[in-house]
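[INFO] parsing input record for Glycoside hydrolase family 92 protein
[DEBUG] input buffer:
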Amino acid sequence: MKLIFKAGAGALALLLAAGEASAQSVLKYVNPNIGTAHSRWFFYTPAAVPYGMAKLAPSTNGHYGNPSGWEAVGYDTRQNSIEGFVHFHEWQVGGVSFMPTTGELRVQPGDLDKPNSGYRSKFDRKNQVAEPGYYKVLLDDYGITAELTATKRVGFHRYTFPKSDQARIILDIGNKQGESSDVTDANIRMVDATHVEGFVSTYPKYVKTYDPSGKVNMYFYGEISKAPASVGAFTAAGIQEKQNSATGKGAGLFLNYQTTAQEKVELKIGLSYTSIANAKANLAAEAKTLTFDQARTAAQATWQRELSKIAVEGSNEQDKTKFYTGLFHALLGRGIASDVNGAYPKHGGQVGQLVASGPGPKAEFINTDAIWGGYWNLTQLWALSYPEWYGSYVNTELQVYRDKGWFGDGLANSEYVSGVGTNFVGLAVAGAYQVGIRNYDVNLAYQAVKANELNYRNRAFGSGKMDVKAFTQYGYVPFRDDYKEYKGEWYKTDSTGAYFSNSHTLEYSYSAFAAAQMAKALGKKADYEQLLKLSNSWQKILNPQSKLMQPKLADGTFASNFKPFEPWRGFQEGNSMQYTFYVPQNPAGLIAAMGRDKFNNRLDSIFTASAKTGFGGGKEIDAFAGVNAIYNHGNQPCLHISWLFNFSGQPWLTQKWTRQICDEFYGTEPIHGYGYGQDEDQGQLGSWYVITALGLFDVKGFTDARPIIELGSPIFSKSTIQLGNQKKLVIEAKNTSKTNMYVQSAELNGKPLANCWLYRDELMKGGKLVFTMGAQPNKAWGSKTPPPSAQ
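[DEBUG] output buffer:
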């Protein structure tokens, strides 16, 4: 691969020449600024590589933290001052902020509404550049240009100073950043004139809740291109001049310089979650001789390679921007936590060593938000073209199972940080097995999957599913209205039931199905029969009169005072209107229980109504804006619903509504990106757009014994996909346009397709999938034989 740097362009132009025709860089279609109103901590980290540990980004409000532990924090397009450039950005993990300044010494970042109260600086977005692998901004208060880039485990800074006798770099490590909550311990020291090292320990809100004996440690070892004229320290207690180390809360250093006009100072910061020694080793392995410009070129070449695994063509530039920005967030959302030598962070600040993961690519240990909803977007994208990351996800969870005895839905340095409490890890592992991703101990994996569904004895709170005993005993989770608030503990769940009883029943039914299919594949007949029976538990909470899922008490009666649009009561982050369609493991059964006409009429009317509010929470800027709506694309429980028409004999409505969601819910603006400030959980909504725009989806999340692919409405005239098995799939959509959203006919490798689905193993052989599109539905195509709902 030959890389050509084209100087003077607004974005790095990478031209690839390897015996093929030159291809224009796809990086120009990635706009990291999309959706940066009310965005989450990981979301705006342009100076990173895919799945990197080093995720560098400007922070407008990072030190504010958030009381509940998950709210939008970090960078907000509505705020116009920067308080620093932070290295660690993961779910519940954040820390190590640097900031270049001039003038009077300040060691606190200051307040958003009073920029001059600290070292933060105003900036103008016209002087900001954000690209995959690179960030640049002019800090107006100081006349300093800051640039950032990264390798997997090393962050790079380049600061261009004005002439100043009071130039400095603030290394602020002892204050909370993002979701990581208060710092419990910290240390930073100059090793010599040009090297710095240190660590930060934090106790995030979700660690405190779900894994109280845990902790999150971050380590760094840095190299500075120019020795400072002098060094000072600070802590929460104040400033200590001429000290080259600091310890405890509020710890930091300030490096003093005298700079000439346009003088550059560069820093390379090796990162680790295990030790300073490993941070130093990561720096040496990845960046010992690397310059800033070389690191930037390499980072952007990596993004070019990974994004180009799915190459889309078409005349609509906005759709390409949505597509590649969504893919960017999908590849950015989770980050490696293991070092170059295979060390990884274990529970309570311990250090482990990864074991060999079996055939296939070497697995990394990764930090991850919950996989809640990820089977309808992220795992499907991984399985299509990025199987190494699906394998790393499974191996990470199995390592935690070895170490702690249970899967952890969300993980921060091996600590349980679930967030939703239901734990779909077993389903995701079963899906990996069914698509042939098996670079792990399969018997151990099944043992863990089975335990996740059926075992409740001595279950760790942070591993989720604390009402498994009730689910297996009653065949559903009994509703406990009194658990809304129980002795100060909100939304309590235990062996007798839960406040979120209905969503739990539906979710456990789905994950039991996934485990059942894995059991069947491995010849575990008794397990298969037990799990399959549990997978039909949704039938027990479907009210036969209203045809809605309704909370049910332990005595078998439905709860009174039921309101279908009421969120939270019985349903986590949603309501009955949304969750009634949560039977992805058996759509045919749900359709039969409702009646096909009623099912189709209700579902179509839901989308007709929700179209008026952009398929989410309208223009309200809030993650939960749509929880009381009739449909809410801005959160996980609804993400499969638009694909259910394929099962009910009206595939043209799946084509219509998935296309309209892509057009209306997704935007290309800082405020209208993923809805309006809705919940882009570490790449999930971006992944959904990517696979839906290709016209490929599986409601069951690849949990069938022989997984299928449903066909929708491909947006692009041509998509060339490098499959994970190294074969190539070309998808052509003839005549596709904003109005031509309906499939008239389709064929695979010259053979006509009569169905709106096919088996995934057929698709993964590669070749050419051709759709002919039109402006009116062809109601004869794909409507006769629905996708299988075999139990």
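[INFO] The first strand starts at residue 57 and ends at 59.
[INFO] shutting down worker
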